[in-house]
Amino acid sequence: MNEIAAAAWTTLMALPRPRLEELFAAAGRLEALSARLDLPGGGIRFDWSKTHLDAAHLAAFAQLAEAVDFAARREALFAGEAVNSTEGRAAEHTAQRGVGRDTSTEEAFALHLRTKSLVEAIHQGALGEVRHLIHVGIGGSALGPALAIDALARDGAMVDVHVVSNIDGCALEAAFAKCDPRTTLVAVASKTFTTTETMTNAQSALTWLGEGGVSDPYGQVIALTANPEKAVEWGVDETRVLPFPETVGGRYSLWSSIGFPVALALGWDEFAQLLAGAAAMDEHFLNTDGAANLPLRAAFADQLYVRLRGCQSRAVFAYDERLRLFPSYLQQLEMESNGKSVKLDGSPVDGPTAPVTWGGVGTDAQHAVFQLLHQGTGAVPVDFIAAIAPGDDLSPDHHRNLLANCFAQGAALMAGKEAKDAARSYPGDRPSATILLDELNAASLGALIAFHEHRTFANAVLMEINPFDQFGVELGKDIARSMLGGGARFDASTQALLAEAGIR
Ligand code: F6P
Asked: Does residue 486 register a pLDDT over 80?
């Protein structure tokens, strides 16, 4: 770490630690720590005033950002430089939204046109009657489409989509039970087109099509991949292979042809709105300096809790049923990106990196896990996400109650309450931030996801790590392969489990 960065961390560590109520005594705190961004899908209000960030933190974190060359690293990201240093690759997900170097945005535009044409051809009946799509993919090839469709297709979809990720056959069987093979397409979504789970599910889906009376099962398969040759080799017709660039990482790939099921379910225009919302957030992130940059400011709060206060987890509660899959989406984004132990130069990190991201949906979570948030032994910083406009047509009581509960939780975590009886006391001073959307729609969802992508990147820059590789997932995969394949021997416990389960 360079001397200026080290000095900024020293300053940050030494800052006083007033309670949240004391921080509110400072005039203008709410205005200083909240902001509204006007975006294509409506505004989003961000409120960090119930976190321990204050003017001194913002100044010291801004100094840290300068010391680690935040602006230059951000520039390199958007310029398509090889920011994924361990793999010698760029990370060009923003180019998929039209923000990035010209050659990459032009390529993305052309590939999107190809996806759009296929989506529209299917809608017009070019592949016969299509009522269902079974989308097989895992990790980044599944979580984004599942989230977007679950959030946005509540009023009905043009095609009924089932996202299947797990290699556990129960997952695929559940989808089969809801689909008719004669009117079902199968999308095989895999950046590498080699992932065991996806290829096993794809093979079984082909068999199901064949056994269901489809004379040409491959004729109903579409491939979404950065490895088109492999898809063709596997049997997919070239005209139904929708490629995306190698420089788009799996957990950042919703914006590429991996978004095909979203466009098929909602129509191309909605998918274009998703991209537009994300692009607006890209422009904000690229062109705003210092703490006014909202993903960067969110990263300041994250670093405060992870590095200055040693919080080992962070929780995200969507007070919106339509965003129930958002916490699991964020888990991959944040934990696969920043769960690292070495810095960019290969040396050990200077402190903890990604906390465990967890969460759920409000109000359900209030009746299950909030006890720990209010009275557990450690503070867990919480993000609340909600939308002002209701997603339902029922009595307004539902939504008023939902939002009141959301805001009540943040207020209660901060204020706490003393009681004579220790078991009935709340310590308070527990931090939360609120992200309040005017409404949830394709554009605001795009902006919300892009906000978190950039927040994750900003955290990585502050910690001087590479968020774009994921070597940590490889060892387990290798061992599983050798268990099924060869005569390798393992520890006594593992051997006994294998024998007991009759695997070998
Ligand atoms: O195992 C982790 C991972 O590589 C993720 O990063 C990725 O999103 C997922 O597997 C699926 O990979 P693919 O899209 O290549 O099938």
From this structure: no
- Mean pLDDT across 384-394: 98
Q: How far is the CA of 219 from the centre of ligand 1 (A)?
A: 25
Domains in the chain (CATH in brackets) are 3-67+288-469 (3.40.50.10490), 101-272 (3.40.50.10490), 474-504 (no CATH)
Predicted TM-score (pTM) of the model is 0.98
Handedness of CA 412, 414, 418, 422 (dihedral sign): positive
Three-class DSSP category at 190: coil
pLDDT tens per residue across span 268-294: 999 999 999 999 999 999 999 999 999
Q: Average of pLDDT values for 331-339? A: 98
> Among this protein's residues, is 191 annotated catalytic?
no
Given pLDDT bands bounded at 50, 70 and 90, which one contains residue 1? confident
CA 451/CA 423 separation, integer angstroms: 39
For the chain, the residue count is 504
Helix, strand and coil percent figures for the chain, each rounded to 5: 55, 15, 35
Protein residue whose Cα sits closest to atom 2 of ligand 1: 473
Query: What is the rounded average pLDDT for all residues in the chain?
Result: 97
Catalytic residue among 92, 197, 336, 453: 336
Query: DSSP secondary structure string, 223-265?
Result: EEES-HHHHHHHT--GGGEEE--TTS-GGG-TTTGGGHHHHHH
Paired strand residues for 135: 163, 187
Cβ proximity of 60 and 1 under 8 Å: no
**Which amino acid makes up residue 435?**
I
Q: Which residues of 239-248 are buried (b: 16+ CB within 10 A; e: fewer)?
A: ebbbbbbebb
| Ligand 1 within 6 A of CB of 200 | no
Q: 202 CB less than 6 Å from ligand 1?
A: no
Do the beta carbons of residue 199 and residue 164 sit within 8 Å? no
Average pLDDT over residues 402-406: 98
Q: What percent of the chain has pLDDT over 90?
A: 98
Task: Answer whether residue 319 shows pLDDT above 80.
Answer: yes
**Substitution site in 328, 470, 475, 481 for ligand 1 pocket (most atoms within 8 Å of beta carbon):** 470
